[in-house]
Design a protein that fits this description.
It is a single chain. With about 90 residues, this protein is α+β, with helices and mostly antiparallel strands. The chain is about 30% helix and about 10% strand. It contains 3 helices and 2 strands, in the order H-H-E-E-H. The longest helix has 13 residues.
Length: about 90
């Protein structure tokens, strides 16, 4: 049962990463919990105004090993990929 008036779209990443949610399921949820609900890139806590992305550290999207996956803010994810294309 969902607690009170909770909604998967209310931005409570901590709550929904603990539950089976379409927004934070599977490997994303595991990474969020492993990282104590902090972005692996900038270290800031995830809050309700930004989407969480699952980043493949080695760039290989076929490599789904736990040590190759990290949860990061969407803006941090964009920055990582922009900086790679500039080099």
């Amino acid at each position: 049962m969902v607690q009170g008036i909770k909604s998967p779209y209310d931005g409570d990443i901590t709550y929904w990463s603990e539950r089976k949610s379409k927004l934070y399921d599977g490997e994303t949820s595991k990474a969020i919990k492993k990282q104590n609900h902090r972005c692996a890139s900038c270290g800031l806590k995830f809050i309700d105004i930004e989407v969480v992305n699952l980043h493949h550290i080695d760039g290989n999207h076929a490599n789904w090993k736990k040590n190759n996956l990290e949860a990061i803010h969407e803006s941090c994810h964009d920055y990582k990929h922009m900086s790679k294309s500039e080099s």
